[in-house]
From TrEMBL:
Its main location: cytoplasm. Its cofactor is K(+). This is tRNA modification GTPase MnmE. GTP binds at residues 226-231, 245-251, 270-273, 346-348. GO terms for molecular function: hydrolase activity. (6S)-5-formyl-5,6,7,8-tetrahydrofolate binds at residues 23, 81, 120, 439. PANTHER family: TRNA MODIFICATION GTPASE GTPBP3 (PTHR42714), TRNA MODIFICATION GTPASE GTPBP3, MITOCHONDRIAL (PTHR42714:SF2). Transmembrane segments: none annotated. NCBIfam families: mnmE_trmE_thdF (TIGR00450), PRK05291.1-3 (NF003661), small_GTP (TIGR00231). It holds the Pfam family TrmE_N. It comes from Siccirubricoccus soli.
């Protein structure tokens, strides 16, 4: 195991608390802990110790101390945890003492980066831990746990092993063509590579569900002025998030509310009413409304049941759009709007809102996917897999065995970048820069 210089960071939440946890890791951790606590406790056993400043001998705190000798630690290095009283003065004093003893504050993600460098996890598991920390909903939590637990590493590692075996067979065909090898060895490699390419392509054709679940869905609420969009947003959010007024054009900018539907994080965006703008500010609001609709994963086209459908909103009634007839307390919902059967709701009375929430939850589940399968969660995974598929497609057209071997090598390198087996220096800073200090 590589022992890097000793680092420390707060592993618990910032601010005043009953207990705060400081983590240490790296070369010299044993000496630093001994300098503050007098002696090391037994491994992985919490021991109560008085902590003293190594320079002045001043008592800093009475804390629980845990010692994790290498390699049986999160980072694979010698590590320790100090469970302190959570006052700011205590934390500041102990941090100063740690610096005096030879440790330095950690950079974001540095603990997990060291765990990766020491082979304690691959890059996909490290990203899963980052997602676990950021998870807002149960569905995000389950997806992050699967990834941190090695679901993607197992899948991609299996593909990498198959590619390695294919490459070995192709190299054997090149190096030992005069030997008594199976006559169809070259054809068998091409056939098996095509089967693997189809598997990877199927994995890619997931509609971006894992990425949507990780990032959250955007739902844009569109409609004419006074169609009841803001009232609908408030009703779904359960609070007064947007200003509601009988005056047309009240909403000039996009008003967003974050909520969870079927375990999927969703941002509801109330937008300016679609119409010919009367001034430059409203015109900008309408432009932003259209742009948000173009970016959205789902569009709610809202029509007022007591008025004829407006042409601007009708233009957004497309496959996948959820069409609503609002204000059914004032007039019955029409049988069809723009060829679609509308869902009848009343933001004022609450009629139809339960059905709307069910429809939104079903749409969120379909778009984001909440099954237990290992799914793509990041654009860099998708880019590497698309590159691997591209190389495997080139194999079928390569005229020479040597060129076919090179396409297999290139596909293997692309897969290796996902898990961190090869060519990872360019992506390490991006991966671990997302972490909080202390992880």
């Amino acid at each position: 195991m590589i022992q890097h210089p000793a680092i420390f960071a707060l592993a618990s939440g910032a601010g005043r608390a009953a207990v705060a946890v400081l983590r240490l890791s790296g070369a010299g951790t044993a000496g630093i802990v001994t300098a503050l606590a007098g002696r090391l406790p037994p491994p992985r056993r919490a021991s109560l110790r008085k902590l003293r400043h190594p320079g002045t001998g001043e008592v800093l705190d009475e804390a629980l101390l845990l010692w994790f000798p290498s390699p049986a630690s999160y980072t694979g290095e010698d590590s320790a945890e100090l469970h302190l009283h959570g006052g700011p003065a205590v934390l500041a004093g102990v941090a100063e003492a740690l610096v005096a003893a030879g440790a330095r504050p950690a950079e974001p993600g540095e603990f997990t980066r060291r765990a990766f460098l020491n082979g304690r996890m691959d890059l996909t598991a490290a990203e899963g831990i980052a997602d676990l920390i950021a998870a807002e909903t149960e569905a995000q939590l389950r997806q992050a746990l699967r990834q941190a637990g090695g679901a993607l590493a197992t899948l991609y590692g299996g593909w990498a092993r198959r590619l390695t075996a294919l490459l070995a067979r192709q190299e054997a065909f090149i190096e030992f063509e005069d030997e008594d090898l199976p006559a169809d060895l070259d054809d068998t490699v091409a056939r098996d590579a095509a089967a693997l390419r189809a598997e990877i392509a199927s994995h890619l054709a997931d509609g971006g569900r894992g990425e949507r679940l990780r990032e959250g869905l955007l739902v844009a609420i569109l409609g004419a002025p006074n169609a009841g969009k803001s009232s609908l947003l408030n009703a779904l959010a359960g609070r007064e998030a947007a200003i509601v007024s009988a005056r047309a054009g009240t909403t000039r900018d996009v008003v967003e509310v974050r909520l969870a539907l079927a375990g999927v994080p969703v941002t509801l965006a109330d937008t300016a009413g679609l119409r010919e703008a009367t001034d430059e500010i409203e015109a900008e609001g309408v432009r932003r409304a259209r742009r948000r609709a173009e970016e959205a994963d789902l569009v709610l086209a809202v029509f007022a049941a007591d008025r004829p459908p407006d042409a601007e909103t009708l233009a957004w009634v497309r496959p996948g759009t959820l069409v609503l007839a609002n204000k059914v307390d004032l007039a019955p919902a029409p049988a069809a709007i723009g060829g679609a059967v509308p869902l009848a709701v009343s933001a004022r009375t609450g009629a139809g809102l339960a059905a709307l929430q069910e429809r939104l939850a079903a749409a969120a589940s379909e778009l984001a996917g909440t099954a237990d399968a290992a799914v793509l969660t990041r654009p860099r995974h998708r880019a590497a897999l698309e590159e691997a598929v591209g190389w495997l497609e080139e194999l079928t057209a390569a005229p020479l065995p040597e060129l076919r071997a090179e396409t297999l090598r290139a596909a293997l390198r692309a897969l290796g970048r996902i898990t961190g087996q090869v060519g990872v220096e360019a992506v390490l800073d991006a991966v671990f820069g997302e972490f909080c200090i202390g992880k």
